[in-house]
């Protein structure tokens, strides 16, 4: 993939934070690295004699983040939090808020503690398609270990405090200097360095390595199939009924969407979960699959969503049980946003997901996080807060 760093542009930025904004925007410009609010970045800087972590604020996009989108949090507080055996989300959020040197800044990213733990000035985190595609394949662990021998590889753990604390334990007697980065299985990748350019370069190099592997082992080609007839307006009516609100529908019939919708065993193939956990708050875990009877398909979706909710819920309130997108056999993919913008965001995420799923199948099969892990992510307060 292309390295977008330009020395002449970078030379305009004098402070740690300015340069942090620059390379965050570069990461955000590559949609094969992050999409719509995905990923996060940080820089550690001394302010009035105290070490401060400037970390991406929740709700900001890397592509457009500005200095005010970074949340300044005292490193000492974050490192104390990492060592705790337990920390509730409420305590984490209020503790971090109290440790912010500017209370008007946004809430720090849910990964702030993990960023603090990495003992390098600059930390970059993305959900790079190529890395998660390989990681979400049946032999993902084996491929990742081979491709990234000098990375710390972490099995899937829910983001936030639990993940940070696990990495705290894993790295207590750890040689960070010989560690080139971190791969979080089914989630993404971290690179880091004391220099902003080096950290960015390491990200581009690592992701390029994963892309090369896929270009050798998981090549996609699409035939020129024509979509079949389908009453998409009727679908819209049924989904609006199920959702209880109006939607702005978007139909995707690109060669990719058509190939995806024309797979054999469509139901099984297209319901294997999200590419990276945070997508779930937008897409839900699975789409509506329309094979033959439309009415029955919508009813079945809602019933299965309710069963999934009841299986894992403790005291949560059920979110809207209707689908956010559909895969219609031999027709294509249909997105159901509340606005045109939301439908476009969904479309972007699903396009990347479809490519990853088809490629992972070339590697032997696509495999995402478990139902239980999906539920925990979908119903995590700190994720739902991002939609507000
Ligand atoms: Zn992430």
Structure notes:
With 388 residues, the protein is an alpha+beta fold. The protein has helices at 7-10, 16-29, 75-83, 89-98, 112-117, 129-135, 140-147, 161-170, 196-217, 232-243, 255-261, 266-269, 280-283, 294-312, 340-362, 371-378, 381-387, and strands at residues 40-47, 50-56, 70-74, 122-126, 151-154, 181-184, 188-193, 248-252, 288-290, 325-328, 332-337. The strands form 2 sheets. The chain has a 7-stranded mixed beta sheet with strand order 3-2-1-4-7-6-5. A 4-stranded mixed beta sheet has the order 8-11-10-9. β1 (40-47) and β2 (50-56) form a beta hairpin. α6 crosses α9 (196-217), α6 (129-135) packs across α15 and α10 runs parallel beside α14 (294-312). The chain is globular. The two termini are 33 Å apart. The relative contact order is 0.12. The structure holds zinc ion (ZN).
Secondary structure elements and their pairing?
Layout lengths: L6 H4 L5 H14 L10 E8 L2 E7 L13 E5 H9 L5 H10 L13 H6 L4 E5 L2 H7 L4 H8 L3 E4 L6 H10 L10 E4 L3 E6 L2 H22 L14 H12 L4 E5 L2 H7 L4 H4 L10 H4 L4 E3 L3 H19 L12 E4 L3 E6 L2 H23 L8 H8 L2 H7 L1
Parallel strand pairs: 5-6, 9-10
Antiparallel strand pairs: 1-2, 1-4, 2-3, 4-7, 6-7, 8-11, 10-11
Helix pairs in contact: 6-7, 6-9, 6-15, 10-14
The structure holds zinc ion.
Zinc ion binds next to loops.
């Amino acid at each position: 993939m292309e390295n977008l760093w330009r020395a002449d542009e970078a030379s305009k930025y004098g402070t740690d934070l300015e340069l942090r904004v620059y390379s965050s925007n570069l990461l955000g410009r590559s949609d094969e690295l992050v999409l719509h609010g995905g990923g996060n970045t940080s820089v550690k800087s001394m302010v009035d004699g105290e070490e401060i972590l400037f970390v991406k604020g929740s709700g900001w996009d890397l592509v457009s983040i500005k200095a005010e989108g970074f949340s300044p949090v005292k490193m000492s507080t974050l490192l104390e939090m990492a060592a705790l055996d337990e920390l509730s989300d409420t305590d984490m959020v209020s503790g971090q808020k109290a440790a912010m040197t500017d209370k008007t800044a946004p809430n720090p990213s849910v990964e702030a503690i993990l960023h603090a733990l990495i003992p390098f000035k600059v930390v970059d985190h993305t959900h790079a398609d190529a890395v998660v595609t390989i990681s979400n394949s049946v032999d993902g662990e084996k491929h990742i270990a081979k491709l990234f021998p000098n990375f710390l590889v972490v099995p899937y753990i829910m983001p936030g405090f639990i993940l940070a604390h696990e990495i705290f334990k894993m790295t207590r007697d750890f040689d960070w200097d010989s560690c080139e980065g971190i791969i979080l299985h089914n989630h993404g990748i971290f690179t880091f360095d004391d220099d902003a350019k080096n950290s960015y370069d390491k990200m581009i190099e690592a992701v390029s390595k994963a892309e090369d592997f896929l270009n050798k082992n998981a090549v996609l080609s699409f035939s020129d199939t024509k979509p079949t007839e389908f009453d998409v307006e009727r679908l819209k009516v049924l989904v609006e009924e199920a959702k209880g609100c109006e939607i702005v529908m978007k139909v995707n019939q690109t060669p990719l969407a058509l190939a995806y919708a024309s797979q054999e065993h469509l139901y099984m193939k297209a319901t294997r979960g999200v590419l990276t956990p945070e997508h779930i708050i937008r897409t839900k875990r699975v789409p509506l699959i329309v094979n033959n009877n439309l009415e029955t398909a919508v009813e079945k979706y809602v019933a299965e969503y309710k069963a999934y909710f009841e299986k894992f819920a403790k005291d949560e309130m059920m979110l809207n049980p209707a689908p956010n997108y559909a895969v219609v056999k031999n027709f294509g993919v249909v997105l159901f946003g509340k606005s045109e913008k939301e439908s476009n965001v969904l479309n972007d995420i699903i396009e990347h997901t479809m490519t990853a799923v088809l490629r992972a199948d070339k590697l032997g099969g696509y495999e995402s996080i478990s139902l239980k892990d999906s539920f925990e992510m979908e119903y995590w307060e700190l994720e739902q807060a991002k939609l507000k």
